[in-house]
Each structure stands twice: as C-alpha cells, then as structure tokens.
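Note to self: keep these together.
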Amino acid sequence: MCRQSASVCLIKSPSRQHRALPHLSQRLVTLADPRHRRGRRHSFVSMLLIACSAVLAGARSFTVIGQWAKSVPQAALVRLGARVATVFSVRVAPSAATVRRVLNAVCPGGLADLLGTDPAGAGTLAVDGKSARGSRTVTGPAAHLLAAMTGAGQTVTQLRVPDKTNEITCFAALLEPFDLAGVTVTADALHTQRAHARFLVEEKQAHYLLVVKANQPGLFRQLRALPWKHAAARRYDRETGHGRKGTRATRALTVTELGLDFPHAVQAVKVLRHRTGIRTCKVTRQTVYALTDLTARQASPQRLGQLTRSQWMIENRLHFVRDTTFAEDASKIRTGYGPQNMATLRSFAINVLRAAGHANIAARIRAMSYEPFRRPLDLLGLT
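Structure:
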C-alpha cells in the first residue's frame, strides 16, 4: 500500500531504484494505473506525460491541460505515446474529462516520489507545509501539503496532511523512504519535537537544526537563559536588498554539559536580526533560537547562520513560486487526489526548469508557452 492513498500503487512506496530510473516514462510506468481494466483507451503513462508537458507550458488546471492536449499536433502526440485510433496511424489525445479522472485517482504519494529528486548527498533539506487555499470545500478544509526541498531548490516529495491533524504526524512518513545520511534537515518550530530529533539522528543518520519558539516553553526558557554574552563563537553578516538594510549576528554555544532536555543536542544557536527600511527608517528586531546536533567542528557560526536561513528557501523558492507563477491558491481543484497531484506537477515543472539552469521560473514558463508543443517535450527528453 502507498503511504498516502488507499490504492495499491506499488508493493510499497517507490524505491530508490524506481526514483533513479533515467527517463521520466520509465519512472512513471512503475506507477499503477488507478482505472478499471475495462474501458481503458489511452495509455496511463501517456496521460501523465501530457499533464507534465502541459504544466511546463503554463497550464494551471485540468481544463487547460485538456485544451493543450486537444491542440497537440500529430508529431508531438507520437513523442507523447498517444493512442493510435485508426488504420492510418492517427494519434488521438485524451479529453479533459479523462485527464481529470486520472489525476484525481492516481496515487499522490507515489507520483510525488517519482517526480521528485533524490536527497541523498544533499547538504540541507528543508521541511515545511502549505495550504492550497482554493481546495477548501463546504464540508472540508483546504488541502494542507507538507513538502521537502533540498538546498539546491529541488523538491523531493510531498504528502497531504490528514484533516483534523497537523504536520507533526506526517514528518516521519514524509522522509522515511529516503537516504538522508549526512543531510542536515531544517524545520520550523512546529517540528521541534523530541521524536523527530531521535528519528533523524538514530534512524536516518541525518543531522538537524530545529527552531525553538514559545510553543516549547520550558526549552525556550532554557535557551534564553544561556550565557550568550560569553559565547566566543560569533558571526556578523550585513546585507542590503528589498528596500532595507540588515544585520545578522549569530552566536553558538556548546550545550552538551548543560543538561538541556533535547535528544542529541550539541549546539544552541542564537540569531539576532536587525532590519532598517531604507525609505521609512523603520527598525525591526527579531531573535531566533535553534538547536542542532552538529558539533562546533562540523558547523561554524557562519554555517549555522546559513542553515537558519535555508529554512526560508522552501517558502521563497517553492511555495511563493507556485502561488505567483501557477496561481495555486486561486485553483479550484478540490476533488479526489487532485489538489496534491496538481501541486506535484507544479513542483516537478519547477524542478525541471531549475535543473536546466533557469533561475526565473515565471520567465521560462512564458518562454515555454511560445512553443508549447516542442520546448516542454525537448526539456523532458521525450523523443
């Protein structure tokens, strides 16, 4: 069974061997077709390739994917593996309704794993959640999706958080299938849980840097009471951008002998941020505390400062891009596994474009739309 859906997509979640297959079609063929055997006319893999290509060309909904498929010329349909309908070898694309039914039913956990990147060997891995606001219904809340992204801006996978619960229950399930040895996992204060720290260090042989806020009052008070004035390990950074000037002071203390009540904690981190608006001259100040199992030799104050900032990358390079480029929050896809599968297709498009060296995702999506039946297929390596 899949860790996300009630359908059998594989014997278990896609293995590393499945995810490492070189071609997209080879990876997708390992995913089980959710349709009944009777009445299948279009290839399951072909429909997924059409969906991937259409989203790369700028499609934001199932309807637009169907319209894109309806306009695909014969040469491109051959590359996509579309169905042969007549003795004259005429290719026929699936309708928008057919695409909608498949994407509403296909296993979301398996699709996210197969379209994601392998985090093995990555320096950092940020974990954070986001709600697809437009998926809210009269009887149910919006789909809340927990995702993981590497330091290079590549989405690894995502899972939908079950209704009436929160991200904490999905943290281990999200990361369980992957090799995280030596990877530093960062997460916000919600995931500063003792069970999460043990899971990462003891089971996954990974490292962690977890932010501590007032939701852990006892731990937060312990960190605030540490002798920060005597910290010898310090780092100061200055930056200017987005209409403001900022200063970041990072201090680190080794806490192994201080009896801090958190598993495997070696260093405590304090980051003091000062920001001044260039026009308004308004000054804001923020103090952030964090814990990590990295030793002083493994992570200097400079490295620790970079790790605390890397948690924001998933907001800026994934959630923000999906909202602004693909209008995710305005999407009205609500039924079945549609919200999470459409989000997976958007993340996959971002991964492919970043892997090709494109930093401005919106600009490149526009460039794809100028030749929508050639450029996306070329980028996906479909011959």
